[in-house]
Every structure is written in structure tokens, then in C-alpha cells.
Amino acid sequence: GAVVSQHPSRVICKSGTSVKIECRSLDFQATTMFWYRQFPKQSLMLMATSNEGSKATYEQGVEKDKFLINHASLTLSTLTVTSAHPEDSSFYICSAIGGTLSNTQYFGPGTRLTVL
Amino acid sequence: LAKTTQPISMDSYEGQEVNITCSHNNIATNDYITWYQQFPSQGPRFIIQGYKTKVTNEVASLFIPADRKSSTLSLPRVSLSDTAVYYCLVGGGSSNTGKLIFGQGTTLQVKP
Fold it and tell me: Rounded mean pLDDT of A40-48?
């Protein structure tokens, strides 16, 4: 149990375009999902907390208009990187908690974004 | 959220037991202690979680002293495939949003 998936696993886009990343909890209802970013050889950095049916809470320094988060259902959250630039190239990882698993975050496999 | 401190790196050999200790002096009453393993270009994988005393599962043990200001992850008989970064995190209790703040983790290198 406690499986979280992400799609796509990797994406390459041109500068100025927008990219959407999906995060799904496959076998549990995720009341809360989290989005992280990880640069090479660095730790995970929390970007935002997403609760189903409400606006996401962004960490300090994360631009909410650039990183749009939608948590429309208990199994799906999306992160849209708008007007992507090369500096947005990174590894994006989501995680989810919910139900009997409310004390444990389970992570997706990550999405590698490369902006040319 | 409580800050955690772990060794940046550790080396071991196949078949040895590895113990990674994490300090979390400011742990809150409702906080759990959770350890994750991460391989390059993959999301963190849950290893074990505990609140106090000792917890054991099929892959690891977690030792937590009575004051809960530290914890030790024990990996029995490591293999080359255990080479990874190990993160100790504190939080997730009902008193907060479930947020976890990652530190630098411990890079474990297992040698043949």
C-alpha cells in the first residue's frame, strides 16, 4: 500500500512554455500533498503544501504565480511550472499523507524537468 | 519544526551493521521520527518510523532514547545496494500540518 505516482517521469521543454506535473495517490486518499524540488547533490526543498479543495500554502521564497498547484481531488494534485526558464530545471518530487497514513509521507518517484 | 543533525557521510563494508545517529534536540511532543532512503534520481523511500523506544521492521531498527532528543537507524548486514542517502526527519504529528523539512542527510557508501 501507500503508492504515489508522478507523471511524467521526465520532461524537456523550451524556455517560456508551461509544464504540468501530476501526482497521484494510487491506493489511499491523500488529504494533504506536498511538492518538493531537488537540485543535483542537494537535499529536498519543500515548495508548498496542498490540501484537497483549498489553496496551496507556499514556503517562503517560492513564487505562487510561477508554480501553480491544484489539489482538485483526494487522489490528484498537479504542479504547473509557468513560463519555465532554464533555472527551473530540477527534480520535482511530490508526497502524500492521508487516512491511516496521516503521520507518514509517501513520496512519488519524481519528475525530471529540463528547460532548454 | 525540529531541526535534525546527522553525519554528512559514512562508509561501511558489505555484511556489516550500520548505525546512523540523528540529533533532534527540539523535538515536539507530538512529533514522530521518520527515516527515508533516497537513491539518485528517485523519490525518498520510507524505511521506518517511531515515536519512542525501539521499532523494528523487515529492513531496519530504530532506537529512540527516553528523552527522544536523538535516534539511531540500524541497518543489519548492509549490501552494496544500500549505498544511498539516508534522511532523518522529525514532524508529522497532529499539532502541525504534517510538513517535513529535509536536512542534508547521510550519504552511506557501502564497499565490497
Answer: 94
